[in-house]
């Protein structure tokens, strides 16, 4: 059996009986999701509708022990986008988001990597337009702070 077949068999076995609607460690402590954002570019900023835009890589990582697999501690698997639909993902929500989109040229700009211990790394390229209440009393010499607020949809 070649390596591709071995990986397909491994993934099929991992997902046998797996329920992607149930979070990791259900019934135990909350799932901890680590997030990082790499901003590719900022702008435009609109004083008229009080928004700003940013193009970024939005990365999330969590441990789902149901997806742990045997092997060396440094083993990782790059999963296909179709596999992404079959595993649990956090319900991340941008609280002050007005509009956003996932880049899809030439394919959806996202990837998933699975580590031997069950850690999942999910990365996507997004453009986010977010609201920013601005105080323009000293325009154009004012200073604005425009946070990006996000969290779990379940915590709303």
UniProtKB/TrEMBL annotation:
Domain Neurotransmitter-gated ion-channel ligand-binding residues, every copy: 9-153
UniProt keyword Nuclease present: no
Keyword Transport: yes
Protein topology in the membrane: Multi-pass membrane protein
InterPro entries for this protein: Neur_chan_lig-bd, Neur_chan_lig-bd_sf, Neur_channel, Neurotransmitter_ion_chnl_CS
Predominant location: membrane
Record keywords, A-Z: Ion channel, Ion transport, Membrane, Transport
GO MF, any single term: transmembrane signaling receptor activity
Location in or out of the cell: Membrane
UniProt family annotation: Belongs to the ligand-gated ion channel (TC 1.A.9) family.
UniProt protein name: Neur chan LBD domain containing protein
Organism for this UniProt entry: Asbolus verrucosus (Desert ironclad beetle)
Classification of source organism: Eukaryota, Metazoa, Ecdysozoa, Arthropoda, Hexapoda
């Amino acid at each position: 059996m070649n390596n591709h077949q071995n990986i397909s068999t491994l993934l099929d076995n991992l997902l046998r009986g797996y329920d992607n609607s149930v979070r990791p460690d259900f019934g135990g402590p909350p799932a901890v999701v680590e997030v990082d954002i790499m901003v590719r570019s900022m702008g435009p900023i609109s004083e008229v509708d009080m928004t700003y835009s940013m193009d970024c890589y939005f990365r999330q990582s969590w441990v789902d022990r149901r997806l742990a697999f045997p092997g060396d501690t440094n083993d990782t698997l790059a999963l296909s986008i179709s596999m992404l639909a079959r595993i649990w993902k956090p319900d991340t929500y941008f609280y002050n988001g007005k509009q956003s989109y996932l880049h899809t040229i030439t394919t959806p700009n996202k990837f998933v990597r699975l580590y031997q211990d069950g850690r999942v790394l999910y990365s996507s390229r997004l453009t986010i337009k977010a609201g920013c209440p601005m105080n323009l009393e000293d325009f154009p010499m004012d200073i604005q702070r425009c946070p990006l607020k996000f969290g779990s949809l379940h915590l709303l």
